[in-house]
Amino acid sequence: MTELGTGYTGEEALEEYISAHIDTEGELLSALYRETNIHLLNPRMASGHIQGRLLKMLTSMIKPRTALEIGTFSGYSAICMAEGLPKGGLLHTVECNDELEEFISKWIAGSGYMDRIIQHSGNALRLVPAMGLLFDMVFIDGDKRQYPEYYVMVMDYLAEGGYIIADNTLWDGHVISPDYDNDAQTIGIRRFNDMVAADERVEVSMIPMRDGLTLIRKKN
How far apart are alpha carbons 37 and 211 in whole angstroms? Predict the structure, then answer.
């Protein structure tokens, strides 16, 4: 990556440019992102400004009555999607790390979208089937090793014409590097990508932003 005179890499400079030419994230999300970076491990897992605005817009376009998120982390992406939900729409968000529950609850409560977000703590592979719901949109951003299992499970609860948005599907380029052939997370994402590409039930597109974002539509 070419280094620029400002001290930024070309990628960082482009991100600054994009951030300056899209909707702002607002004070609450900016504060949440800052607190995520200060208090939580692996803060890069939070969606952030650019991806957050995209998630809001995709949600606004899809207009899901019932949506699911696998992997809440700090709650940033959940709040972004809640912003885009139609009137009466609900987002069920599932986080496996129960130590984050209080942190997430605080920010959701202060977001103004508490009535649109239902927070769950536990293993999505067990919790989602027990909900007995049909989802119009699913955002997968949980344990990368379990992406194939998430996909198999979610397809049973995704409405016809519904969408799956999967994050981190390029995994810092590790998906094409032989150096990561024995890495469990890379293996999980590769398996997921191969499953989706071979699944005739869906239409697929991939966006090379951040760590890769895959858009999947279940055919009617």
Answer: 18
CB of 108 closer than 8 Å to CB of 36:
no
Give the span between the Cα atoms of 220 and 64, in whole angstroms: 16
Q: How many C-beta atoms surround the C-beta of residue 196 within 10 A?
A: 20
Give domain 10-218's CATH number out of 3.20.20.70, 3.90.1640.30, 3.40.50.150, 3.40.50.300: 3.40.50.150
Torsion sign across C-alpha atoms 22, 60, 109, 127: negative
Q: Please name every residue paired with 164 in a beta bridge, in sequence order, or none if there are none.
A: 138, 216
Within 10 angstroms of residue 155's Cβ, the number of other Cβ atoms is 17
Distances (CA, A) of 144 to 81, 153, 168, 209: 21, 15, 8, 17
Predicted model pTM: 0.93
Cβ–Cβ under 8 Å, residues 140 and 150: yes
CB 154 within 8 A of CB 128: yes
Q: How far apart are CA 205 and CA 149, in angstroms?
A: 20
How are the residues of the chain apportioned to helix, strand and coil, as percentages rounded to the nearest 5? 50, 20, 30
Is beta strand 213-218 parallel, antiparallel or unpaired with respect to 135-140? unpaired
pLDDT tens profile 1-41: 334 445 567 888 999 999 999 999 999 999 999 999 999 98
The residue with tokens 């899809």 is: 62
